[in-house]
């Protein structure tokens, strides 16, 4: 490899090059990054009619003692269903309640992670036919042990109408498979709605689960594409993501059934929270708007204007002053200043749909007229032929085998240098080569990313997909970050992405790879580290072959005898299909070691199936 690191040579890589794509898939948000512990907190998962689906709520006490049903009697108009609990037993008299009382429990998303010494805020809305004496407890999965408990007591007149209750519970022990339960021994009727349990220690109090949030900060994402994917579209438009239903007080959000990934979400992680997440990560938000097209139905272009208005309103919500209609709603939610929304994607994977182009042109002209600075992303791939419509960026998605993705490191070499830039908004190795996140997949992805880095004059942004999977509900495989209620690990693909974080905003160096091997790809950058404010040259090489390869590295402009402070990092493993897991979360991770002056560092041997990165201090 010959790398030219003399000062005058190099090309700036876009600041935005590497980011993340968050989709509400695999319970990434509901039961994942969004720290709400209760699933189906408003009892609406079965829709707005009664009887509704209260899953995963269950009753405590059999029907001799308690009768659980749903009613359209909530105080919240947009989510009208509430739980009705007819308590038939009492603390004394003929039908005495069983020990511990009767009521309901919710195990959250495959068990709540309750930790000793941590405080949980429980909020619920209640109405009662008489006086109220309710035990609110966090317990093990069978109701024992009790980890934290409080009694909520109120006179009949205080709870004859819907009343908000708030309780702080501090856990006395740790249990990763806990539940919340609300029980009583007082005969009468109790109605419950919007039951929430939130840990107090979410990131900045913004509702993001801290361990999962930290996994994202490690990637130093420069943009956040959200909230889908197919999730934006829906199988049917009636189940698509409609942002207005996801903003305002959480209690008043209707929630919706995401019919592509087949689960209910209470939409606690709504449009506002996505913008907040981007801001907290220091990432530019990229808002994928619903363009009136789902997997199975489409709005005719002649009727698309309400959807266009909805998109304009969403931008006003993000960017408008607090005097504007939608900016005022944002401000009332706690964000007085506008969010820095500069990119909008019109739909997802809809280019071939009948009404895409017609609808797109309506969105494009309306948004450009109102917000000329917003970069608009079309779903139509402009990498092989010119687009027939205006756009600032075009989406490019690729899910394929390792060998195919490896070969696509040349994909953008021949793409047009004029016209819109590419946004590789979804890429990954899938199928047999991927396992549930293999080293092989990560190596092929690395080669693809090296090609993107090399072509970053035309590729502006790239993100892996999907980002998260709750291992209890794997709707798509593989994924970058795997978690359950209490644990998390990154797949090799996750760790591989970390190698590329420093490339955003760096300088691409002129690199020549002279080899007979078809299994090698390389690229080099120079960049300033924000950790120590020093300048580095980073050379990355992937060897996806089964043989070791000897390589000489020449860096013009670097003194090979002065390498103190330099290091190398290797990502490899014993077997090419090795994966990380909850049991072995760090089996396939990058290993860094300092370069000693005595090493003949510029004469290297690349192991089979490995990735190596050299950081030379300039
Ligand atoms: O990333 C998973 C899915 O793949 C996305 O929802 C969709 O855009 C693509 O088909």
UniProtKB/TrEMBL annotation:
<keyword id="KW-0378">Hydrolase</keyword>
<dbReference type="InterPro" id="IPR013780">
    <property type="entry name" value="Glyco_hydro_b"/>
</dbReference>
<dbReference type="InterPro" id="IPR010720">
    <property type="entry name" value="Alpha-L-AF_C"/>
</dbReference>
<keyword id="KW-0272">Extracellular matrix</keyword>
<dbReference type="Pfam" id="PF22848">
    <property type="entry name" value="ASD1_dom"/>
</dbReference>
<keyword id="KW-0325">Glycoprotein</keyword>
<dbReference type="InterPro" id="IPR017853">
    <property type="entry name" value="GH"/>
</dbReference>
<keyword id="KW-0964">Secreted</keyword>
<dbReference type="InterPro" id="IPR008979">
    <property type="entry name" value="Galactose-bd-like_sf"/>
</dbReference>
<dbReference type="Pfam" id="PF06964">
    <property type="entry name" value="Alpha-L-AF_C"/>
</dbReference>
<dbReference type="GO" id="GO:0046556">
    <property type="term" value="F:alpha-L-arabinofuranosidase activity"/>
</dbReference>
<dbReference type="GO" id="GO:0046373">
    <property type="term" value="P:L-arabinose metabolic process"/>
</dbReference>
<keyword id="KW-0732">Signal</keyword>
<protein>
    <recommendedName>
        <fullName>non-reducing end alpha-L-arabinofuranosidase</fullName>
        <ecNumber>3.2.1.55</ecNumber>
    </recommendedName>
</protein>
<comment type="similarity">
    <text>Belongs to the glycosyl hydrolase 51 family.</text>
</comment>
<dbReference type="InterPro" id="IPR055235">
    <property type="entry name" value="ASD1_cat"/>
</dbReference>
<feature type="domain" description="Alpha-L-arabinofuranosidase C-terminal">
    <location>
        <begin position="425"/>
        <end position="610"/>
    </location>
</feature>
<dbReference type="InterPro" id="IPR051563">
    <property type="entry name" value="Glycosyl_Hydrolase_51"/>
</dbReference>
């Amino acid at each position: 490899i010959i790398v030219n690191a003399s000062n005058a040579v190099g090309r700036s890589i876009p600041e935005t090059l590497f980011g993340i794509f968050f989709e509400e898939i695999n319970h990434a948000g509901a039961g994942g990054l969004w720290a709400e512990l209760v699933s189906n907190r408003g009892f609406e998962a079965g829709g707005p009619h009664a009887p509704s689906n209260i899953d995963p709520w269950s009753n405590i006490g059999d029907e001799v003692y308690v009768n659980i049903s749903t009613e359209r009697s909530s105080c919240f108009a947009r989510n009208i269903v509430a739980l009705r609990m007819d308590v038939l037993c009492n603390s004394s008299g003929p039908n005495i309640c069983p020990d511990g009382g009767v009521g309901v429990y919710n195990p959250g998303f495959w068990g709540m992670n309750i930790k000793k010494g941590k405080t949980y805020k429980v909020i619920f809305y209640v109405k009662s036919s008489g006086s109220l004496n309710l035990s609110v407890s966090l317990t093990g999965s069978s109701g024992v042990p009790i980890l934290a408990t409080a009694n909520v007591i109120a006179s009949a007149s205080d709870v004859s109408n819907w009343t908000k209750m708030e309780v702080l519970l501090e856990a006395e022990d740790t249990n990763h498979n806990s539940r919340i339960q609300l029980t009583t021994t007082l005969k009468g009727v109790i109605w419950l709605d919007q039951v929430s349990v939130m840990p107090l220690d979410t990131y900045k109090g913004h509702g993001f689960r801290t361990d999962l949030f930290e996994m994202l900060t490690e990637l130093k994402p420069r943009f956040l594409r959200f909230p889908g994917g197919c999730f934006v579209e829906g199988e049917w438009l009636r189940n698509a993501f409609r942002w207005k239903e996801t903003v305002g007080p959480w209690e008043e959000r209707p929630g919706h059934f995401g019919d592509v990934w087949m689960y209910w979400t209470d939409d606690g992680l709504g449009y506002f929270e996505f913008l907040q997440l981007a801001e907290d990560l220091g990432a530019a938000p990229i808002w994928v708007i619903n363009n009136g097209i789902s997997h199975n139905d489409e709005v005719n272009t002649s009727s698309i204007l309400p959807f266009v208005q909805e998109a304009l309103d969403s931008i006003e919500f993000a960017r408008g002053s607090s005097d504007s209609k939608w900016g005022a709603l944002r401000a009332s939610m706690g964000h007085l200043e506008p969010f820095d929304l500069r990119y909008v994607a019109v739909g997802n994977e809809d280019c071939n749909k009948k009404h895409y182009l017609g609808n797109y042109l309506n969105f494009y002209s309306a948004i450009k007229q109102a917000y000329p600075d917003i970069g608009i992303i079309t779903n139509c791939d402009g990498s092989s032929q010119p687009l027939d419509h205006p756009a600032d960026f075009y989406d490019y998605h690729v899910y394929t085998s390792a060998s195919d993705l490896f070969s696509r490191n040349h994909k953008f070499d021949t793409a047009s240098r004029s016209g819109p830039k590419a946004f590789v908004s979804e890429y990954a190795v899938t199928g047999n080569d991927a396992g549930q996140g293999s080293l092989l997949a990560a190596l092929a992805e690395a080669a693809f990313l090296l090609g993107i880095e090399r072509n970053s004059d035309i590729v502006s942004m790239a993100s892996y997909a999907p980002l998260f999977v709750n291992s209890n509900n794997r709707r798509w495989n593989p994924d970058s970050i795997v978690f359950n209620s209490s644990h998390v690990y990154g797949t090799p693909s996750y760790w591989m992405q970390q190698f590329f974080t420093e490339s955003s905003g760096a300088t691409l160096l002129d690199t020549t790879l002279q080899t007979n091997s078809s299994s090698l790809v390389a690229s080099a950058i120079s960049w300033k580290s924000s950790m120590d404010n020093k300048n580095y040259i980073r050379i990355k090489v992937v060897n996806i072959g089964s043989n070791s390869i000897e390589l000489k590295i020449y860096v013009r402009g670097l003194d090979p005898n002065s390498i103190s402070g330099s290091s190398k990092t290797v990502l490899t493993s014993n077997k090419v299909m090795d994966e990380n897991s909850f049991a072995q979360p760090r089996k396939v991770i990058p290993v860094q070691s300092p370069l000693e002056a005595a090493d003949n560092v510029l004469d290297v041997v690349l192991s089979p199936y490995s990735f190596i990165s050299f950081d030379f201090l300039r």
